[in-house]
From TrEMBL, chain A:
Keywords: Cell membrane, Membrane, Transmembrane, Transmembrane helix, Transport
Lineage, broadest ranks: Bacteria, Bacillati, Bacillota, Bacilli, Lactobacillales
Native source organism of the sequence: Companilactobacillus keshanensis
Protein name: FecCD family ABC transporter permease
Listed transmembrane segments: 45-65, 77-94, 100-120, 132-154, 178-195, 223-249, 261-279, 291-310
UniProt-annotated location(s): Cell membrane
Amino acid sequence: MFILLIILIFCSMMIGRYNLSMTEVSKFFLGNADSATRLILNLRFIRIVAVILVGAGLSMAGATFQSVFNNGLASPNILGVSTGASVGAAIAILNNAPIYIIELAAFVMGVVTVVLTLVIDNFLHSKSSIGLILSGIIMSGLMQSILGSVKYVADPEDQLQSIVYWEMGSFMKVDKQALYSVGPVIVVGIIFLLVTRWRLNTLTLDLATVKTIGINPKLNRNVMIAFATLLTAAAVCLCGVIGWIGLIVPHISRQIVGDDNRYALPMSAVVGAALLVIADTIARSISVNDIPLSIVTGFIGVPIFIFILIKGRNVGV
Amino acid sequence: MSVFSLTTNNLSFAYKDLNTIDHVNLQVKSGEVLVILGPNGIGKSTLINCLSGVFSKYQGSIKLDNEELKQIGSKELSHKLALVSQRVNINTNLSLFDYLLLGRSAFHSIFSQPNKDDEKLVDQVISRIGLENLKSTSLQNMSGGQKQLANIGRALVQEPKILIMDEPTSALDYKNQVNVLKLVKTFSNQGIAIVMSTHDPNQATMVADSVGLLVNNKTYRQGSTEEILSDKSLSELYQTPIISTFNEDLQRNVFGIEMG
């Protein structure tokens, strides 16, 4: 799978508005490409690194949410984190804030949305995980309305365009500076979830059992949710909201390596990165202009999810 | 193995709509099986949850040896005490092996992974509960009986000195009930103290060293099986006529209900 990802990265470097040969890409990596090629490939390379980080990050966040809530439908989008984060980003954009404030606002609103989703779920007293999904839909609805209001008052010349760009997801505007400021946050989130991935298995059990196993259920759960939210919010900062990846990639990975998060989480990272590299390559090369990424991930994600459901995989509802 | 004991002194618990318990004084020590009997809704699960540290807002005291349960950190507690909950509908796709491995969680920090010794222990426990052929099977694909055995296995992997079991046989057919009761007997022979709740007095006569009755008026009585289990005490306990006969083949009293 990892080798497949490397091949995909290589292919993705070749494909674009200016298609390049394998030799030219190889020369770039060896450091002796001519300056024009180097310029194109440098941009492409930065973009692909961002795509890999976001793909891996969103998928691991999805896998984490699914484990912690023991619900196969839990994903950054369904829990409202993504919409919440884009509300944060939109408000910051409205105030012409610099990138790090946009990042912070996205994170804070992402966390606020998850917390409110959990509070509503708590009030519903639902024994099944459907309560959580409902709460997520409720919070997403609220965040959509807030986002709508922000868009309504935004300057249509400049701000509105930026906000809409956030909503549909695209790596078009990702440059070195954006990658350097947000990339490390995603790397930290990925590393944290990777080293704590066995604990996620424990958190799939009911709270009383987790407690008697000797693990503080709430503390562990909240730490995991915080890092998954951090990853989601950071991804939203970099490229806006990208649908489906966080939901379907964990399922694909679990089909391949089983449900043990010690294997499923690294696999989610690789599959997520690979799938998003494919989606982004399509998004930037299929037409003259970049098409929003959520359109592509939607067309890829829907049939895959239907296939997973038909195959009878238990998604925990 | 040194002698280890669990004792409660005037243990009471009342919270919201949970069943209450009142002034329970129970004792159990290494190698003993204490079976707690009582009708539905009398507070057996509440008592079990107090004893296992799930409910901590109790009055009175619960002592593990001489240490108050509340004062013991959850990590340290999990090395001494393990709970087998009533739930057999474990909603996990993990394999039996990976599920049992979770019993070692508290032996590691959040950043570490289980090691070879943990895996060896899990293998041993799987053969003790007799599910070697299901080692890699997902729990979702197991029967209720197998899931309950898996629960017991997960608790054993904690290497506890005391095992608390909430109606471990309630969802099981006869064969699986016998499997569980045999395991209970084996564990007590190995020096583990066991507290087990059930509806069925016949299970008490099979495995118990002592029996505790949670009676309707919220009093708790504990004594040896012979002392406590009588037609009268059980008829009062379950508010329905219960008759015992001595069975020559089984060499013990068998309790039956009367339709009236």
